[in-house]
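Course assignment 3, question 2. Fill in each field.
Student: A.L.
Task: Predict the tertiary structure for the chain below.
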Amino acid sequence: MRVRVLSLVVPLVIASCAGAGPWGHAPEYAPVPGEEQAVEAARDLDLVMAQREPQEWTKVPVRLFGVVIKGTPSEPAILEVGVRGLAARNLCDAPESESCRVTVTDKNFGVLRVSLQMTPQEKSGSEQMTSGSLIRAVGMLKPDADGKLMLDASWHRHWPRGYYVTQSFRDEMRH
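Answer field:
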């Protein structure tokens, strides 16, 4: 009897430990391995304050979520992103975690250029980083050639278009 119960319970425990996967399919934001360490010393970017006080903001690492507006496939890639906020909870289509999507605000809080090293998967194929992709990036702000601030990313995470949602989907998806 004990063996039979274990044979039913163990697969459920293993499945529950699988995590939210690379796309964060969970009711609340789920970091990938290494993400917590990458973001722990960084502060959330306040783009208005960074533009007002660049000397202060260029001294500390910052983190942001942004939707790619456009970019160049150079090395490193230079992306123009609309800075977004992360929702307190992800939107879900059903009670199962697999139906949840990382959720960000509808509106940009400003536009910033981000320099980062793309992975081979982000350069082409179904997981390509293109206009409409979502990124989370951590790095240092620095002036670009025009004197405007840009983020030199030391770490990033990427969601292809369609792998995340904005809060505008709240009427179609439930929490």
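Instructor remarks: The beta strands are 43-44, 61-72, 77-84, 91-92, 100-104, 111-116, 134-143, 149-159, 164-166. The helical segments are 2-16, 35-39, 47-52, 54-57, 120-123.
Grade: pending
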